[in-house]
Structure formats: C-alpha cells, structure tokens
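Help! Submission page says 'invalid entity' but I think these are all valid:
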Amino acid sequence: MGCSSSLPDRNSGRLGGLNPENGSANDSKNLRVKLVLLGDSGVGKSCIVLRFVRGQFDPTSKVTIGASFLSQTIALQDSTTVKFEIWDTAGQERYAALAPLYYRGAAVAVVVYDITSPESFAKAQYWVKELQKHGSPGMIMALVGNKADLQEKREVSAQDGMEYAEKNGMFFIETSAKTADNINQLFEEIAKRLPRPPAS
Ligand SMILES: Nc1nc2c(ncn2[C@@H]2O[C@H](COP(=O)(O)OP(=O)(O)OP(=O)(O)O)[C@@H](O)[C@H]2O)c(=O)[nH]1
Ligand SMILES: [Mg+2]
C-alpha cells in the first residue's frame, strides 16, 4: 500500500471535483492556497503529504497515478488559518506532460528531491527551471531534500541544496517523512511567506 493509496477517497483522486486552475481566495484571517508538489518518482512526495495531513508514514509505497488531491488547514500564532489545497503530482516520466495542469495557477510549488539521489536533485533543478518559465509570477517556491533520515546514504550535501535554493530565490529545508522531521516546519514556513491580503 502506498502513501497516497492509504488516504480515504474523499481526500484523493485524479482531479477530484476541483478545478486545478483555481488559485487562492482569501480574507485577511483565513487564507486558502493552492500548492503543488513536483519531483522525481520515489523521492517521497506522497509520503510528505501523508505525514503532514494524517501524521502517518507508509514504508511500502505505490507510485502516484496522475495526481492526488488533499487538503489540510493549519493555524498560525497570529490566529491566521491557512488552508493548503495540495496537488501531489506523479513523478514518473510518463506523467510529466500533465504537470502544467497542476502547477498553473498554484501560489506555491514544493520541489522535492531525495538526498540519497543526485539524479533526483538534477530532476528538481529541471522542475525549478520549468516553473521559472511557466509558473505563476510571484510563486513561492520551496526546495525540499527528503529522506534526511538516510544520512549514511547521503549523496547530495545540504550545502549544495541550500546554495541552489538561494540562487533561485527559494526556501530550502531537509525533511524526513519517515521520522516526521521538519514536515510541519516546511508547511509553516510556507504559510509565513504567503502574502497577506489587506484587512477589511
Ligand atoms: N527512509 C525514508 N524513506 C522514505 C521517506 N519518504 C518516502 N520514503 C519512501 O520512498 C518511497 C517512495 O515514496 P513516495 O512518497 O511514494 O514517492 P513519490 O515521490 O510520491 O513517488 P511518485 O508518486 O512516483 O512520484 C516509499 O518506499 C517510501 O516509503 C523518508 O523520508 N525516508
Ligand atoms: Mg506519489
């Protein structure tokens, strides 16, 4: 059973009833934001989402087919709530052409690689370039090095991830969906960076 397949039906499914073109609509205290996850197959995108939304980890994961949709609301210290509408895309090459459906109109993109896989870091850089060319102007972008629990197998240094992120105006964090390390922090840091609409 994969990370996404253990989710109840009401929270997942290809395109669901939601239009992926929808952006975000907000009042000053309740923000709603469309977020897309991109990255190579197997880097742990679905596991990051499952950890964030359900607090669970599934070590026997199935690849995502097409994309799945989930949402999660968090409360910030200033009593603002942020509802993340999350599109978890499929990393397999055969689905690459679908990606624009999900990142178009997204306010936030989370580009994930696996710290044990230089190939996945190269793929993350491909997605960053794609987003720079075709993503929403002013999009908030995060670069995530996942599987940080696998230190002994590390092949991409935190320094390399950080430098690439800095050069490209991205926020950088290393996470582990397995141990839950930095998963909530990832979404909290994104929430803090969202532009606030003027209070009415
Ligand atoms: N050790 C470790 N394994 C992880 C972590 N996150 C995910 N995995 C494992 O990595 C594999 C792939 O995880 P998924 O979340 O399905 O990967 P994905 O990026 O969604 O892959 P696609 O759906 O094909 O794009 C699974 O076997 C997970 O159990 C992590 O933080 N640490
Ligand atoms: Mg997946």
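Support: the input was valid. A stray whitespace character was the problem, and the output above is from the cleaned input. The pocket of guanosine-5'-triphosphate (ligand 1) is lined by residues 2-3, 39, 41-47, 59, 61, 63-64, 90-92, 146-147, 149-150, 176-178 (CB under 6 Å).
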